[in-house]
Amino acid sequence: MAVRLFVGNLSYTTTELDLRTYFGAIAPPSQIVLPVDRETGRPRGFAFVEYLDRANAEKAIQQFNGQVFNGRPLAVSEARAREDRGPGGPPSGPRPGGFGPRPPSSFGGPPRAFDPNAAPAPSRSRNFGPDAKPQRGGPKAKKKDAERPRGPIPLKATGRSFTLDDDSPDEALPDIDDFATSKPEDEKEKEKEDEES
Q1: How far apart are CA 116 and CA 182, in angstroms?
Q2: Residue 27 clears pLDDT 50, i.e. is over it
Q3: With contact defined as beta carbons under 8 Å apart, do 27 and 50 qualify?
Q4: Share above pLDDT 90 across residues of the chain, in percent, rounded to a whole number
Q5: d(CA 77, CA 64)
Q6: Tens digit of pLDDT for each residue in 136-175?
Q7: Can you tell me the mean pLDDT for 56-84?
Q8: Is the pLDDT of residue 49 over 80?
Q9: How would DSSP label each residue in 113-141?
Q10: CA-to-CA distance for 57 and 47, rounded, in angstroms?
Q11: Cβ(63)–Cβ(7) under 8 Å?
């Protein structure tokens, strides 16, 4: 009976020919399946390699599991049927969104048979809290809110730039005493005296 091996952690550049050559070192595989993504057409990073003899399959697991192939360490194990997978595999049983029968609802106990003489069931009230406060102003207040601008007021760029080095001859600059750049009073007086003499 044929034994199918699961080969995981494959490089996306791996081809079927690469796998056939690599696993052919033990014995020629009877079948190799390299699944691809339906939408992109790219390999999905795993493959199935099948041997006709169980001894060859077990030897391939021992030799290739954990070995680096195309830059990645392989995970080689015996493939299991979908039903045998543990909690990491897809759910067993009917698939979600399928056309199988809907499971019975567990809300409120088992369904009851219809009885035309029975009293109607009390309506379920969905009262989750106090009533909302009444809104004041009515439609006029809503209209005023709609006319109000929302968010920050946009500023228009005038296209005029301002610089610190404004050399306009029209304006006289005020005389500012800057102690960092001006000379001390003693030196000013000395210069005046030198100019006068």
Answers
A1: 107
A2: yes
A3: no
A4: 31
A5: 9
A6: 766 666 666 667 767 776 667 766 665 666 555 666 666 6
A7: 89
A8: yes
A9: PP-TTSPPPPPPP---SSPPPPPSSHHHH
A10: 14
A11: no
- What is the torsional sign of CA 85, 89, 91, 93? negative
Residue type, 49: V
**Global model pTM greater than 0.85:** no
Exposure class string for 102-140: b at 16+ Cβ within 10 A, else e = eeeeeeeeeeeeeeeeeeeeeeeeeeeeeeeeeeeeeee
- Residue 73 pLDDT level (bands cut at 50, 70, 90): very high
CB 23: neighbour CB atoms within 10 A? 25
Residues 74/45, Cβ–Cβ less than 8 Å: no
Distance set, CA 193 to CA 43, 87, 181, 190 (Å): 96, 102, 21, 5
> How much is the mean pLDDT over the chain?
75
Q: Which residue, among 67, 55, 58, has the nearest Cα to 22 in the 3D structure?
A: 67
Task: Inform me whether the pLDDT recorded for 97 exceeds 50.
Answer: no
Mean pLDDT computed over 29-45: 90
